[in-house]
Amino acid sequence: MTTEHREAAPPAPSGGAAPRLDKKTTRGSGPAPDPAREKRRAERRSRRYRWDVKYSPYGFISPFFIFFIAFGLFPLLYTGWASLHQVSLLRPNEMEWVGFENFTRLWDDEFFWKALRNTFTIGIISTVPQLAMALGLAHLLNYKMRGSMLFRVAMLTPYATSVAAAALVFSMLYGRDYGAINWALGLVGIDNIDWQSGDWSSQFAVSSIVIWRWTGYNTLIYLAAMQAIPNDLYESASLDGASRWQQFRHVTLPSLRPTILFTVVVSTIGATQLFGEPMLFGGGGADGGADGQFQTLGLYLYEMGWVNRHLGRASAIAWTMFLLLIIIGLIYWVLSRAVSRSSGQED
Amino acid sequence: MATTTDDTPRTAAVAAPAGPLARGRKTRAGKGGNRAGRHLHAGWLTYLILGVFTIGSLYPLIWQLFASSHTNERLAQSTPPFWFGGRLFDNLESAWTDANMNTAMINTVFVAGTITVSTVLFATLAGFAFAKLRFRAKNLLMMMVIGTMMVPPQLTVVPMFMAVAKLEWTDHLQAVILPMMVSAFGVFFMRQYLAQALPSELIEAARVDGANSLRIVWHVVFPAARPAMAVLGMLTFVMAWNEFFWPIIALTQQNPTVQVALTNIGRGYVKDEGVIMAGALIATMPLLIAFAIFGKQIVGGIMNGALKG
Fold first, then answer.
1. Residues B96, B266: Cα–Cα separation, whole Å
2. Over 50: is that where the pLDDT of B100 sits?
3. Which pLDDT tens digit goes with each residue over B268-281?
C-alpha cells in the first residue's frame, strides 16, 4: 500500500509538516547553512501546514454550500416571500403585497383540496404496494440462485426510463379503445375501462407508472440491507426451529427497520412531488383530467403559476407542500422513535 | 424473536433436518465469500415470481419498441401489435424532425455531461472532507446536507423562474445546468464510500511526505474514490438525462432537452401514436444501451450506496 502511494504521490518539493532531510530542496541553493533562515522557513512551513489543515476542508465543502444557498436555500425563502405577494408570470418583478391572501384563497379553493386529496391517495396507492413488493422481491433475490444479476439489472431498467417516456407509454397502454391493458382485460371478459376519466382508475393508472419505475430501485436498496444482516442471526433462528417465514418476520424485518424507514421517507417525498406522470398521462395538460381527477399538488402548482400566471399563489402552494412535508416528517420521527422504543423493551 | 423461540418446541425442531442442513449451507456460504446474509437456494417458485416481475419491468419498453414501428391506423385497432411493423424508421424520422431532436440530443448530452462532471467533482471533494477531515461544525453541516435532500424542487421553482426571466436566460442551457451542479445525495454517497474505502493512514502518510491538501485530493483521494465516482457519475447522468420538471419550465421548444422535446411530439390535430412512441424510444434508447453495458456496475453502486446508508 505504501509503495503504491509513494508512486502516486511523490513527496512535495516545497513546504509541509515534516521536511524530508534526505531530499534536496529544489528551491534556493540547496541546504542553507544559515540557521535563522532555516528557522523562519520552518515556521512558514508549519504555518502553511496549519492553515491548510484548518481551512481546506471548508474549501472542499464550499462549492456544495455555495450552490445550495444560491439555488436551494435562497429560493426556498424567497418563495415564502413571494407567497405573500401578488405576482404575475408576465411581470415577475412587480410584486404587490397581499399578506396571507394567497393562503386564504387556497383554503377556499376546491381544486386545491382536490389536488391535495389526490396527492395523498396517489401517494398511498403508489408507495405502499411498491415498497411491499420491493421487500418481497429483495427477499427472493437474497436466495442463492443463478442469474440473480440478470434479474437485478432487468428490474432496475425502468429506473433508467424517463418520466416523460414512461408516462407516454403507459398512457397508451391504458388507452380506452385500443389500449393493450383493456385488450388483455377483454380476454378475461372485462369491459373496456376508461382509465383516464374515472377517479380511481386514473389514479391507479398514474400510480402504476410510479410503481413500475421505482420498485426495482427499492428492491436493490432492501437487498443491500439484507445482505448486511449477520449470518449468525439466521443461524441461531434456524437452530431454534424458525421457519423461513418466521425468520423473515423476526430476523429480516426488524433488521431492515432503518432501511424501510428511509425508503418510506424518500418515497413520501417523491410522492408529494409527483408531476410528470399525471401531466403526461393526461396528454400534456396541467389540469389533471377534465375534472382534475388525477391532478396532484405539483401539477396544480404548475397550472396555477404557468397556465393561470399567478406566481404568488403558486408560491403559496409550494409553501403549503413544504409545511405538509414537515408535518409528515415529524409524524415519521415520532413513529420511528415509538417503534424503536417499544421494540427495545421487547428484546 | 424472543417470542418465537419460546413458543416453538425446541426439541422437535432441532432434531428435524432443519438444524444440520442449515449449518451445512452456512459453511458453504462462508467459504464462498465475504458477503454476509442468508444463502438458501431458490426454489422454482422464486424463479417464477422473479421472472414475472422481470417481464413486467421490461415489457412496457419492449412494447414501446413494437408500437413505434406501426402506423397510427394499425395502433388504432382493437388488437394491440405484438411484433414489429414496417414503419420503425419512418416514425423515428418523423419524431426526430417533429421535435427538433437534433438540438435536443446535443443539448441533453451537454447538460447531462456538465452536470455529471461537476456533481462528481464537488461531491468527491465534499465527501472527502466529511469523511476524513476534521473541522468545526462538521456534523451540523452534514446534517444540513442530508436535510437539503428533503427540499422538493417545486419549492424553489418560482424564484428560480423569476431569476431566469430577469437574467434573460429563458431557453439558455445554463438555466438548467447551474441549479443542478451539486447534489446532496452525491455528497452523502461519496462520504459513505470514502469513510470505509480510504484508509486514514494513507492521508497521514501523504501529509508526512509533505503533500498539501490539494495534492492529497489529486493523488490519494481521487484514485481511491474512482469506483464510487464512476457509479455516482452514472447515476447522476441518468437523473440529469431524465430531468423533467425544471427544464420544462426554463426551456421552450426552440432549445429543448430531449424530455422537453418529447412533450411536443404528436401534439398536432391528429395524435400519431406511432410517432409519439418513436419519440419516447429516442429519449430512452441511449440510457437503455448504457444500461445494457453498465447495468451491473450501476446495480452494484446502488447496493453499495444503500448498504452503509
1. 11
2. yes
3. 666 788 888 888 89
Give which of A64, A3, A105 is closest to A310, Cα–Cα.
A105
Q: Which of A140, A237, A317 sits opposite B46 (nearest CB)?
A: A140
How is residue A120 written as a grid cell?
395523498
The three-state secondary structure class of A287 is coil
Residues of B in contact with A143 (CB under 8 A): 38-42, 46
Q: How many residues does chain A have?
A: 347
Prediction pTM value: 0.81
SS3 A86: strand
Percent of chain B that is helix, strand, coil (3-state, to 5): 75, 0, 25
The β-bridge relationship of strands A85-87 and A95-97 is antiparallel
Residue in B39, B75, B306 nearest the CB of A144? B39
Strand partners, A86: A96
Please provide the DSSP assignment of A306-334 as one string: IIS-BHHHHHHHHHHHHHHHHHHHHHHHH
> Is the Cβ pair B202, A5 closer than 8 Å?
yes
Q: Which residues contact B257 (CB under 8 A, 6 or more apart)?
A: B104, B107, B108, B111, B176, B243, B247, B251
Q: Which three cell numbers stand for residue B86?
A: 414496417
Nearest CA in chain B to A315: B158
Cell of A137: 422481491
Radius of gyration, alpha carbons of chain A: 29
